[in-house]
Structure formats: structure tokens, C-alpha cells
Amino acid sequence: MSSRKQSPARLVIALSVAGCLAIFLLYTSIAGGGTSSLRPSQLAGREGKEVQLAGLVLAPVRGDAHAGGLRFRLRDIDGRGRVPVVYEGSVPDLFKVGRHVYLTGTLRKGVFVGERGTLVTKCPSKYAPKRS
Amino acid sequence: MPELGRAALIVCLGLSAYAVVAGGLAAHHRRRRLAVSAQNALVASFAAAAVAAGVLVAGLVRHDFSLAYVADHTSRKLPTAYTISAFWGGQEGSLLLWLLVLTGFSAAAVFLNRRATRDLLAWVVPVLGTVGAFFAFLLVAVSSPFVTQVAPADGAGLNPSLQNPYMVAHPPLLYLGFVGLTVPFAFAMAALLARRADERWIVATRRWTLAAWGFLGIGQLLGAHWAYVEVGWGGYFAWDPVENAALMPWLAATAFLHSVMIQERKGMLKVWNMLLVILAFCLSLFGTFLTRSGVVNSIHSFTQSAIGPWFLGFICAITAGSLALLFLRLPLLRSKTRLESLVSREATFLYNNLLLVALCLTILWGVTYPILSEAVRGEAVTVGRPYYDFFLRVFGLPLLLLMGIGPLVAWRRASLRGLRRMLALPVAVALVVGAALLVLGSGSSRPGLVAYTFSAFVLASIGLEFLRGARARRDTAGESWPAALAALVNRNRRRYGGYVVHASVVLLAIGVAGSSAYQTIREAKLRPGESMQAAGYTLTYRSLSTRPVENRQEVRALVDLRRGDRLVARVEPGKNRYFAEDQVSNEMAIHTSWLRAEDVNVIADQVNPDGSVYFKVLVKPLVNLIWAAGFVFLGGALIAFWPDAREERRLVARYSRAGALPAEA
User: Fold this and answer.
1) ipTM of this model?
2) Partners of A56 in the beta sheet?
3) Cα–Cα distance, B307 to B138 (Å, whole number)
4) Hey, how many other C-beta atoms are within 10 angstroms of the C-beta on B656?
5) Is B665 a residue whose pLDDT tops 80?
6) Looking at the domain covering A36-121, what would its CATH class be?
7) Which secondary structure element, helix H or strand E, spans residue A74, and what is its range?
8) What are the boundaries of each domain within chain A?
9) How close, in Å, is residue A45 to chain B by CA atoms?
């Protein structure tokens, strides 16, 4: 009897999967993909493109984050490439030399210009570093 | 003392491993005494974990800085409550807490199910033992909280952001939720291993799932409130991978809680429920992996941990093993009944499940996209807030709508005419509210207006359900309205507890829409005596003061908050500098206007040496509904969770219908 009939649940699931895929394709085609997440050493050739940059803060840290911008350099966390950064906007409490941070911005004439409010400092002591 | 802690962990590992091997053999060969021995080993592993936890707590309270963990996470001046909460402030302690909760839950599961589901329990023990042995192994061999050193004079202290009452409660509640999902997973795997296709594993774990889901929900809301009051940015959720890590298993568990009702009632969705319980458990493990491995950029990521690869391996093994087992048992899990109509209560549960799982997988895709893109294209690509917000609207708004439609649709097959009659009043309420909001100017945010209109529809639908039920009781039993309402909820706690939880989700949606779509943000640098405007408020910066308090120095800016000529409040945003930790923490000032149903958040973003302050002001309408939703959610979850003698009798009858327990050798 009904056992030979195809359950509408399968149709619903199939249509839902197709719907989800369609929505996803629509999103990625209209709103664009994501932002590349790079290290300072990977910035070469990315002039003018919006990327997320992650690195370690190097001394000195100069300037005013709300007037002209905070200026510092970021280094690859594993130690080679480095890039000067200028950032305007809120600075996280935990920001200081030696911290791992990431921010979104654009490389302009060799300087990485951060977007307002994108600077994030990784939580340093919630998960303690590996002991050597 | 550290030796005692290390020994207790080794004993815990040994007992868990014994529970796996002996429990597996006992279940396979149906050896009753060996099975009891494995159960006892699992219970004893809790005692061993408790000893290890006791040693760590003693080390923390005694400021025993010869324990590296204590020195890394506390200091002599740290208040006692935060000294104890440092137990879960670091990785090793968090893992130990996980092990303690897991072994505690395992012991409770053994105790509570030793008679009713004895044959299932035989297989539950080795599954729980496997998870326990993994965590015990990590603590013994990879990440021990009992590493010793030459004791320094003082410790490094606890991150100032974590020195907050919410942080005392938020992580343990999340752990209770994450670990709680292990129990339904273990029973599901046990049902597959024991070749039991009936609903007993679901009935046995319903409260476990509900409790784990409730802990996860409350834990996340506490975390959001902590972020709101402590982090000093005025937000409460940022789609950070670690926040997503807690949200994903909660979404999967929400879908599971709904779809098990269909299996209990109709015997349908058996495979789907197995998949959901596997998904929820694996996502809870994945969350930990994400946090510890540092594979994606997160504010919480711990980039140097050695436990990431172990977790990845364990997740892969658990996922592959459970899916393979499910595949092998597929013939057993065929449903005898089918969905009869696309317009029925069952169908709305199915739609709800598909939307919840779609939202969960979309978030998972967003979280893993950087890893996958790096593997495929050699470059990590992250998706940001617009991605998550887009999919929250696409899947979240229909979910909200379904919460209003579902309770009004009949089981099996609903007629469209009947449905129209049932929906007429809620739809009318929604349209009136929507039109009124449009007139009042809420059309500035289309998603906000849609969310409010849908919320009105759901609240009207829930109210109607309570009203209909109470009126029926009044008519039949002649009770007063309050008595009829109380009896209605009392006689069907699961259903009406569920409606209360739905109401909390609506409050949450209204709070999120109000505080994000209609918020006002203003920034300005002020010198003493200068003012700024924000959403009808005038803020005047009066003066700056500095004072030493316990383990910190507090800098406060005195700000007058006026509306017109009237002084509404005097607030003191500022910053704390913690001596031992050598860290600064932003202390946002919040003024809540209950009359206007909004918060005014004043942040002293940058305090300059010349006494000027760069202020950031956020006016957030309806944000407090989010926290109110937490209380309503807790109330609903407790109603649904509360033991019910009549239901227990129904379950006993169901057990006996499912067949007497097979005699064991």
C-alpha cells in the first residue's frame, strides 16, 4: 500500500538541499567570497586588495589610534616577513608588543592600512602557551 | 601533592581503559559479572578524576606556585573566587574539568540506568570509557596540570577579562553542555551496537539531552553577557570561531530534541536522529579542537597547543567509526511509517530540522572555510560577519515563522481550511504590529521589521495555544483561569515547557534585532567640560580620577548623561590596570533606561595623558530582552525537564512493550 509510495519527506529533503546550495551560490556570486587571511610575508603582490593580516606586534608602537593612526610593525608568527602597519580605531585592551593580532585592511605603497575597528588581539592567558 | 594528582590521572586512565576493554568483551559475550565490573570501573574513574581535581583546587587555594599551572594562572592578590575559577582558566585545567564532568556523568548514567536499560548499558559503558580514556590520556601524556617547577615568588595572575563573575559560571556551564552530549551519543551508539532499533535509547537519554542543551544555551547567554559588560566593545556576539563552536552543537541538539519527538510518536526519522546525535557530539569535540589547535584566527585561539592533532585524530576516528556503524545497521533502522502530508505537524518538525541543520552546517562551513581554502588553494580565506548575518536571516527568519505555525498544525494531515482558521488571529496580530511599527519608523531596517512582525506572529500563536488549552480545562473541569493554566502546564510539561522556550527565542530575536538593527553609535574626543550627542542624549565629560583598588588601579571618567535638561544618570567609564598581570582592561559604563527600554553604553576608548578622553557611545534599544530571554529559556527548560510521575509510568509501559530484557549469562 503506502509502502510502495515515495515518501514526501525525501522530496522535501532533496528540495531543501538544492535550495541551500542555490542560496549559497547566490550569496557567493552576489556578495563575493571571503577575505584572504595572510601573514606579512605573503603580502607581496597584494597591493590594493583587502586582506586579513595576522602577525606578531614588533616594537616600537607609535602614534595615536584616534588621530593620525597607531603605527607599528607586524612580523610573521614563525619569524621571517614583516610589514609596517597603520591603524585607526579602537585598540583592544590586550594589544601590546609581542602579542599575536589580526586585522583587516589593504597594502598601500608598502604600508598595511588597517580598517577601522578590525584590530583583534588573541586572548593570551586563557589558554596558556605550550611549555618548552 | 602533584604526585598524587598525576597518580590519580594514571589510575583514571587505567580504569577508563579497563571499562572499554572489559565492557566491550562483556557486552559482546553477554557476560553479566564482567559488565558489572566494567561499570564499577567507570564509576571509580570518577573518584580518581575527583582526586586529581581536588589536588589542583588545593594547589590553587594554597598558592602552590611550584605547580606551573597555578603560577601561570593565579597570583597572591587574586581574589579567592577567581583563584578557584582559574581551574578552568587554562588548557590543562579545562581538560581536567572536562574529564571530571565526563566521568561524573558516566557514573550517574550507570547508576540511573542500571535496571531499566541494562542491556543497552552494557554497550554504553565501553563508549563512555573510550571518551574518558582519551581525555585521561591527554592529561597524562600530552597536557598535564601537574607539571612542577621551582616556585616563583608570585604567579602571573589571571587575564583581567576573566576576573568577572560571569567567567566563574560561563565555562563550567558550557562544559556541562558539551560533555552532557556524550551521554545521548553513547546510548545511540550502544543501541546500534546492541542492534536495538527501538526508541529506548532516546527515552533513556531525553533528560540528558535536554539538560546538556539547557546548559549550553544558558552558558552561551552568560558568555554573551560577559562579552557585553566586560570586554568593553558594546557587543555580545561576533561570530568568532570559538563562539560558533558552542553555537553549532546547540543548534544540532535543538534539531535533535525536536526530531526525537517524531521518532517517539511515529517511529520515523530513526537514521536522521542517529545522524543528529553524532553531529552534536562531534561538533562539541570539534569546538574544543578549534579552540586549542589555532588553525583559524580567533580571539580565543591557542596557537601553540600540542593537543590539536590528537583532537583531530579522535574526531576523525569517532566520526568514521560512528558513521560506519550507522551504515552497517541501516537495515534495522527503516521506518515503518511515512510522512503522510507536507502540511502536518510532523512536516513542520522536519522543516524545522532542515533549517536548523542548514544553519548549523552553514556556520560550520564558514568556520572551516579558512582551513579548506588553505588546503585547496594554498591560501586561507575567511568569511566575516556579512556571511553569517546573511545566513542567519535566510534560515533564522523562516525558523522563527515555523515556531508560530508548528503548534497550530494538526498531526498526520492538516486541511488548508483548518489551517487558515487557526492562523487567522496570529496573522492578524502580526500584520497590525508590522503596520504599527512601520508607522512608528521601524522601516529603517527591513530585516528588523520582518523579525518584529514574525515575533508578534509567534507570540500570538503561543498565547493562543495557552488560551485554548486553559479554556478547554475550564470548560471540562470548571477550574479558575490560573488553576487551569497551571494544570495545563503541569499535565504536559514537555509541550508547554517547549512553548515557553519558544517564547524565549522570540524575546531573543526581538532583543537581537533591536540592539543591532536600530542601535546608534557615536564617537568623539572630549576635554573636561565638553559634550557630545547620541540618540537624544547629551553626554558631558566632567573630570578624570585615579584610585588604587585591591589588585588594580582604576582610572575613571565622570560623565553626566542628560536627556533635554534632565540629568538622567552620572556614569563612570574607564580603565583598570592590573599590577600582577601588567594588563589593562576597559570598563564600560552601562546606563539602563527601563522606561525607554534601551541601554546607553559609554566607553572610554582612549584616555590621553592631557586628560582628554576618546569616548565611544552606543545606544542599544531592547538589548535587555536578550538577557530576559535567558531567564524565560531557563524556566521553559526546567518545566520540560521536571520529572513527571505519569510520564514515568508511560515509559515503564513502553519498556515492557519493547520487550523484556534478555536474560544474561
Assistant:
1) 0.76
2) A75, A100
3) 7
4) 9
5) no
6) mainly beta
7) strand A69-75
8) 1-33, 36-121
9) 14
